[in-house]
Specification:
Layout lengths: L47 H15 L3 H20 L4 H32 L7
Helix pairs in contact: 1-2, 1-3, 2-3
């Protein structure tokens, strides 16, 4: 009669459909990062400077370009603020900058043409 050694469980592969031993199962659900109650949210509403930039730039088309300069400056400031704070109105600020720049360029071109026309058509003081 022989003495048999006690049988030890064989470490092999787990049965199909079972997770590997020693590791917890992977979490399959979720929405990414959890909600952070201390995170700062986006400021409500549209940036007031962006609205002002668009309004003054459009008013510059009617009132000889002077408000367009203000609209251009307000638009640049509003674009920086909306980028920094995440507030809405970046598109309005960009439109204010574009309209303001075009109005200022148009009025400057108009002034140069008028000055050139006056210089060409005026008689010379020396009679030449």
């Amino acid at each position: 009669m022989g003495y048999q050694q006690p049988g030890y469980p064989q470490m092999g592969y787990p049965p199909p459909g079972m997770p590997a031993p020693g590791y917890p199962p992977q979490y399959a659900g979720g929405y990414g990062y959890p909600y952070d109650p201390y995170a700062q949210g986006r400021p409500p509403g549209t940036n007031g400077k962006a609205i002002g930039a668009l309004v003054t730039s459009l008013a510059g088309l009617v009132f000889c370009g002077l408000p367009s300069v203000v609209g251009l400056i307000l638009g640049i400031i509003a674009m920086r603020e909306t980028k920094r704070t995440g507030q809405e109105g970046h598109g309005m600020a960009l439109a204010g900058v574009i309209v303001g720049a075009l109005a200022v360029a148009g009025w400057l071109l108009y002034a140069v043409v008028i000055i050139f026309a006056i210089a060409v058509t005026s008689p010379s003081p020396y009679g030449y």
